[in-house]
Amino acid sequence: MALMMIISAIAIPVVNGVLDNYKLNSEARQLAEVLKVARNEAIYYGQTVTIVFYPNDNSYMTRYVNISGKKNTYHKLSNGIRYVGKTTFIPSGIERNPYCAFNSAGTPVTAGTVTLANKKGVKKYIIVNPVAGRVRISDNPPQNWN
Q: 93-142: per-residue pLDDT in tens?
């Protein structure tokens, strides 16, 4: 019985760390996919598609303005996953929240980096290239990071 307790005491933090990293990777992939889909929809529909980030409540929303039949979608980050900082995207609108928008050519109107972190402080950077709109995930900040 004592041996099982010792093994459990060692294994539980390891398992929790693996789960925290899995959640972080999953959220980073999901956000990157949302950004890629927004870019593709902007091209397909010929209209601007915007992703608004809400750092204060760890969420984001895809906004469709002039696209018939498309509804805004809201996503809350998983428990234990949070934004680090306010993102490098430019704030806009009444709410003054940072956003990423793609125009009808798929070019980002605003580009930047979103940083996500888990409870252990491990970070993932979701980077939108300002020229081509390419979306990528990195373990390291972009080269031009301040």
A: 656 889 999 999 999 998 899 999 999 999 999 999 998 899 999 999 88
Helix, strand, coil percentages, rounded to 5, for the chain: 30, 30, 35
Of 32, 27, 77, 35, whose CA–CA distance to 56 is shortest? 77
Task: Break the chain into its structural domains and give their ranges.
Answer: 2-138
Is residue 128 a contact partner of residue 88, using CB atoms and an 8 Å limit? no
* Coil/strand/helix, residue 129: coil
- Count CB atoms within 10 A of the CB of residue 69: 6
Residue 118 corresponds to which amino acid?
N
Give this prediction's pTM. 0.84
Give the residue from 137, 133, 136, 138 showing the smallest Cα distance to 41: 133
Rounded-to-integer distance, Cα 57 and Cα 123, Å: 18
Class of domain 2-138: alpha beta
